[in-house]
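Narrative summary of target 7.
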Amino acid sequence: MLALLASQAQLTDPAGDARGDGGYVLPTRPPFTAEMLDLRALSTKGTPQGMQFTVTYGQMGNPWNAPGGFSAGVTDIFVKGALGGQATLGDLGLRTSGGGWQYHLRVSPGGSTLTEVDAQGRERPLAAPTVQVSGTNLIVQTAVPEGRYGYWVTNSVYSPLTRDGVLRPTTTPGASALQAGRADAPVPVDVMAAPGDTQAYTRGTLAPVGETRDLVGIGLLALGVVGLLITVIATVAVWRRLNARVKP
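Modeled conformation, tokenized:
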């Protein structure tokens, strides 16, 4: 019970910032609103089946009339690894700061997925998550092991007309286009970040939110320190015994 309680977290994101660097122009065919793509909060909870994520948006949009009840955005949640991990956030045009990710959850109207990266950097699929709409929330049950993590969270425009369901920015205007001011603009229109943190759109790097300490690394370091102290104490004790024997 205590472990499950420790894995609970409530992370928030400023409202009204679902326009990338502020200059992204959302598609009008079908009609999107910024509220549909606006990340507001991420709640995490450990369950016997794995981590459950609740993503809150400004508005639950379904402009493509998808049967699942949502079709405005594709939400990517990258889960911080204990040691190492990937530094590139998929093909979203962003990199991590503050460590690397081990699990990648993609919540998409076209089908949600969960993958894991091993120590050699190989990505493998895990059991597909289940997604449920509740008001302005998506409740996502995953196979991510229960624990305290850091997260990189992004939201991109959904389109069933692209290879992976993600609409990428372009500098060419159009009713069905996501327009940005430069050709290499990051794909997400909103990222979960601290208020005033614009590095995702100015430098292409995104800091994790939530529990960002490397708990496993800290534990290993602590064990190393304890082992060193035991060695020093044992060495001093042996030296004292030998010194006592040679005294006249």
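Residues 1-5, 212-226 have pLDDT under 50 and may be disordered.
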